[in-house]
Write a structure and sequence with these properties.
By secondary structure, the chain is an alpha+beta fold. Helices cover about 55% and strands about 10% of the residues.
Length: about 300
Amino acid sequence: DNAPPQPPLAKPKHQVDTAVAATVNGRPIQRGTIVDLLLRSHGAGLLEQIVALQAAEQLAAGKGLSVSEADVESEYLLALRRVADPSRPVPVDKLDKAASERLLVSVLAERNISREEFFVTLRRNAYLRKIVEAEHPVMDEELRAEYARRFGERVEIRHIQLATLADAERVAERLAAGEDFAELALRYSANTASARNGGLLDPFSADDDAVPALLRQTAFALEPGQVSGVLRVAEWHHLIRVERRIPAESRPFAEAIGELMSSARERSSDPRMRELYEKLLREAVVEISDPVLREAYNRRSASR
């Protein structure tokens, strides 16, 4: 009989996988039990990232755009800069890459995200950034605004970043008792990038939105040498001390174009990337054959 082999019969829409994945004291645990739990608890979030990645790839291809491994590596470097200092990305030339990678590992573990999942988001971000930068080139007025942020009047502060209010209040009491701010930052700040320098941050302007608004407003309201009360920014608590006010610089605009372009592009791309991400998810036609994953994904989508 030379008839070609027939494909196996299609499985029912949901068939429990009875293969044994593990045993406990001789009692089997079916693979399907583990898979269903994973799909219910973690599958929807992962599928969302894959959907966004594939939709972004398709959109980029339609626009004649491609992403290289160097683009993905740039997103990884940006992630390290941001995990090193959540209040603002650490400049590349000041980044302790090894320390930031250790911190990233701990953050991913805390959020129950595998490194493989994380790189899906990096690749997705690389496509999103490529698209929005092609659609929205940096305009002259954005460069002028970036120039004002970088070279206008700025303030330099030290800060101590703490996880709980109780921790922040204890450190505040020690500061009030006369202990050195830089030493306490070195010992207790959760921001490892600035802690190594006694909590010192790069100078920033009053309208530099890379720094949380509350930190900016407080810094410009204080005089050099003054210490703030406890400031709550997202899930963190901060104490800051103003080191100095820096007058506006007279650097010619033309000389700074290169670095202004880089920072202005990053600043303008991030919100547009978030908008594009949401748009791609809304418009993607997603057909999910697995009923457990479909239920979890639909539930997640409804809550967005």
